[in-house]
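Ops channel
N.P.: pipeline sanity check, posting one input/output pair.
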């Protein structure tokens, strides 16, 4: 039987990672499931092998197996080795920062087809307000394989619901033509009115 997909989406500071960690914890504690947490190595947010939430009220941090963001297939042997070690199926594979993962759609589909539940958290939009990686494509898998999409909410400093991740460089809005993934950049969630993108063509 194929697995189900739980998708956790929203802008930064919407507690996506905290929500992912909470779901892992309850699956482990109450459903007695083995949940394998994976993390793409392009993630610069936490220390090696850990997924860390910025929300200090939540579970905080959890051990994760890292794989190269441009090759998620390298994580399949980790799943197989884990199953060998624990002597049973890994019931659920959880993936943080899904927007960074190349082949995310095919990789997720493969896990679902092989009977694993999958939980993915990540950003749907990049700093330009455009689809980020393959996150938006996963909604097809939710509809087809069953599961759910949870939209986490963040707020702009004006109090309105934030839709976009505003990238700031030295306190100023980053230009449209700056790179999609930049090390050490700073973001804040902004509403439609306060999202600024200098050099946007349309
Ligand atoms: Zn605003």
């Amino acid at each position: 039987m194929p697995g189900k997909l739980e998708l956790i989406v929203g802008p930064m500071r919407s507690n996506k990672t905290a929500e992912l960690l909470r779901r892992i914890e309850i699956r482990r504690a109450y459903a007695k499931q083995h949940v394998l947490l994976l993390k793409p190595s392009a993630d610069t947010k936490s220390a090696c092998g850990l997924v860390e939430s910025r929300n200090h009220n939540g579970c905080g941090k959890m051990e994760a197996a890292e794989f190269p963001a441009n090759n998620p297939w390298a994580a399949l042997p980790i799943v197989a080795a884990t199953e060998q070690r624990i002597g049973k199926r890994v019931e659920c594979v959880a993936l943080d920062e899904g927007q960074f993962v190349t082949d995310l759609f095919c990789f997720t589909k493969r896990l679902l087809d092989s009977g694993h539940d999958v939980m993915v958290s990540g950003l749907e939009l990049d700093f330009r307000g455009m689809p980020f990686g393959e996150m938006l494509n996963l909604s097809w898998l939710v509809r087809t394989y069953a599961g759910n999409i949870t939209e986490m909410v963040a707020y702009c400093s004006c109090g309105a619901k934030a839709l976009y991740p505003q990238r700031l460089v030295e306190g100023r809005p980053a230009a449209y033509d700056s790179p999609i993934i930049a090390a050490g950049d700073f973001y804040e969630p902004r509403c439609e009115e306060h999202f600024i993108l200098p050099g946007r063509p349309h």
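N.P.: looks fine end to end. Residues 156, 158, 160, 190-191, 193-194 surround zinc ion (CB under 6 Å).
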